[in-house]
Amino acid sequence: MTTTTTGALGGAATRAGDVIRLNKINKVFQTKRGPLPVLSDISFGIAPGEVICLVGESGCGKTTTGKIVVGLIDQTSGEIFYEGRDSRTLKGKDYDAFRRAVQIIHQDPYASLNPARSIFQTLSAPLLRYKLARGRNDLNAKVIELLERVDLTPASDFVDKYPHQLSGGQRQRLSIARALTVEPRFIVADESVSMLDVSIRMSLLGTLTRLKDELGVAFIFITHDLAIARHFAWEGRIAVMYLGRIIEIGPTPQVINDPQHPYTRALLGAIPEADPEVTRTKERMHLRSLDIPSLYNIPAGCAFHPRCPLWEQGLCDTLVPPLYEIKPGQQAACHVMAREVAGIQPIDLRDAPDAEAAK
Q1: pLDDT tens string 181-239
Q2: Do the beta carbons of residue 345 and residue 339 sit within 8 Å?
Q3: pTM of the model
């Protein structure tokens, strides 16, 4: 008999060893047109040194998720746990430790840096705020070390410059150095290479990979590009988002080589290959529609069903799919694939058992 659970994402509110865990995060923005639900039941945990890539089309909720994790905006409901404790209950030194531990690298290196501050001022401010440098000599040495760590060398050529004197790639390296000043345990990288040229993009990804390995920093890496996700998180996990929900999650090699959700298959089919002939002949998932539904009017049942070639009337347009564990460690929110591959009978997410009861 096959047991049905909501998968790893619907697990317990805390998991031993997680640095950060999101539990049923929902976010609704109030607009002139009415409530705009941008996130629904987002749940996952990240262990020290782990990488999870959030991928999906623009507007699916990736950036909102990242900003909620680091505290730039508040969730409407749900909890974020830092080392097993609800982040909203942290006070005093515990809150300062959380703020140091969780940092973000913004997408736009032109807007995220203060143009009135030199590089030295940008990097020294958090070091002084958290008393991580003792005296002027130590402060200078730490700033130089940070610049060298992100390959802004020779550091002496950069320390007195201002952001407008740097290229886009150099600005983003400075943003990374700023995130590293307070010795974080967890970094949200929000489309941190999307605005850069391809050659610079690969160089910066190499820098992030090296820092991940050297410092043991965990990452949420947000991108719309599955090719980049595959490169950066091959030893981590990919979570695919669609209209505010995670619709597939699992180890990167499994998701890339054997996707279980039709939307993931469509994304992978759209990736151009180095060989033009392979690109022309590769198998593609042909969608019923190219139009993305509005968040103001999310379709009933599975939100992807108006575009899905596998949809079944009376099922996909009626029941909201949970994250079924279709293969070990790999979950997908698809009734049809869960039934055909794993033999799981379709259930409605609204009627899914509590995570603890499901175990």
Answers
A1: 999 999 999 987 776 667 677 778 888 888 888 888 999 999 988 888 888 889 999 99
A2: yes
A3: 0.88
- How many beta carbons lie within 10 A of that of residue 9, not counting itself? 23
CATH class of 8-110+185-358: alpha beta
Q: Peptide bond before 154: cis, by omega within 30 degrees of 0?
A: yes
Chain-wide mean pLDDT for the chain? Answer: 87
From residue 293, how far is each of 287, 306, 307, 316, 344 by CA, in Å? 14, 8, 9, 15, 28
What's the gap between Cα 329 and its chain centre? 18
At residue 341, the pLDDT reads 93
Q: In angstroms, what CA-CA distances link 223 with 103, 166, 177, 195, 344?
A: 17, 24, 20, 11, 31
Percent of all residues in the chain with a pLDDT value above 90, rounded to a whole number: 65
Cα Rg, the chain, nearest whole Å: 21
**Domain locations in the chain as residue ranges:** 8-110+185-358
Residue 51 has pLDDT above 90, yes or no: yes
- The answer for residues whose C-beta is within 8 angstroms of residue 121's C-beta and 6 or more apart is none
Burial class (CB in 10 A: 0-12, 13-18, 19+), 331: buried
- Amino acid symbol at 232: F
**177 and 146 in contact (C-beta within 8 Å)?**
yes
What are the distances in angstroms from CA 315 to CA 49, 89, 292, 320, 334? Answer: 40, 41, 20, 9, 10
Locate 158 and state its tokens.
């950069």
Query: 77 pairs with which residues across the strands?
Result: 26
Contact indicator for 54, 220 with CB cutoff of 8 Å: yes
The residues facing 331 across adjacent strands are: 249, 325
| Three-state DSSP state, 52 | strand
